[in-house]
Each structure stands twice: as C-alpha cells, then as structure tokens.
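Milestone M4 deliverable, item 7.
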Amino acid sequence: MDLSQTVKAVQDRIAAAAIAAGREPASVALCAATKVQTDGTIRAAIAAGVRLCGENRVQELAAHLEADAYAGAEVHFIGHLQTNKVRQVVGKVSLIHSVDSERLLQAIDGQAERLGIIQDILLEVNVAREESKGGVLPENLPALAEAALSRPHVRLRGLMAIPPISTVSGSNRKYFAQMRQILVDIIGKMSDNYSVMDCLSMGMSGDFEDAIAEGATLVRVGTALFGPRPPMTGPAR
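Output delivered:
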C-alpha cells in the first residue's frame, strides 16, 4: 500500500476501535510519529490526511521546521527532552508529551516565560516501572502534577505513557487501564486546572487499539503508517 492507503487504513482501525469501545471516532487523535522520516514523507503524510505529527528528536524537529515540512499539521514533541534543548522545543510545538521531572518542568516554564507564552505539556508516567525508560513513577506523580500547576507559563493537559513493547495481543491492556485510572485519580486530586486535563497519550503501532479500548485520546503511530524505520543517522531530509 502507498502512504495514502496506510494513513486511511490506520484511521479506519482507530475509528473501529473507538466505536467498539462505545466512543466517537473523533475522540481519538492520530499522532504520526515521524522519527527519521524525510521532509517529503512528512509532506506526503499530511497530504494523505495526517493532521498531527509527533517528533522524537530535537535535531529532526529543528530541521523539519526549517524546511516547513509540517505545513498543514499540528506538531507535538513526543521524545525524551533534555533541559539543555528546551529552547529548541518550547514555543515550536503545541504540546510536549514527555515531562518527567521538576527540573525539566522548571526549564520549560522559564523558556515559556521568556517567550511570553503558555506551553502545554503532558506528564510522562513510567507505568510499568521499567528502569530503561523515563517517566515519573505513579506514586510520585501527584507531587509533579502539583508542581506543574504552580508554574504560570505551563499548562498541564494530561498524561503520557510508553508501556513495554507489545509482543502478545492484549499484553499492555493492564497498563493502559492503569493509566486511565491514574488520570482519573489525578484529576480528582487537583485543586485547579483539571478542566483542561483531557489528554491521555498512549498506544503505538503494536497496541493502539487496546489503548483506545482503555481510554486513550491520542495514539502515537509510526511503523503502521510508514513501515519499518530506516537506521537513525542525521536529520532526515
């Protein structure tokens, strides 16, 4: 299938999963994970109906922005973000998915203040407690959420998680269900700002239908759209 066909196929799968869960298809956003994709591929995906792109690497984000490759689509940052690269991301994307520490939160808030903007963010939760992954542990999430609420130039929009790679169908549903409950609990504990905590970013190519069944409002899909990723080198042009 060409890219227009794969985009439609993924959109159809998202719609079917939402309907099966008793939800409106429009309640789930498709975020095309464009890691190591070329400017041309990103433009083709947008032409095929992609309305949201998610970038993992700051270097690639900067290169694609310079080339205006995302024209016609919203852009999110979905990868690990180092504090020394915050200036290259804040104000360049509409949502940062991967905030997992007060240090990073402070850096984002400071840069947003310098730009005179409010930066929307998600807090990343290490729901499976994997040592190799970032994210705040569930028991430490309330404190980080309160810290986010105290920052005037940051707006907390919800949560993000990256469960283990799914090798067996349904294996991650327990983590997705846990994330949904964590979001409900956090909203209940927040004294302010809860009304905009409407984003639950979870599910990728191998498990996004299970994530939708458990309440995902945004799924990050790369391989199912673009095929296996080429080796990572420099910025793809």
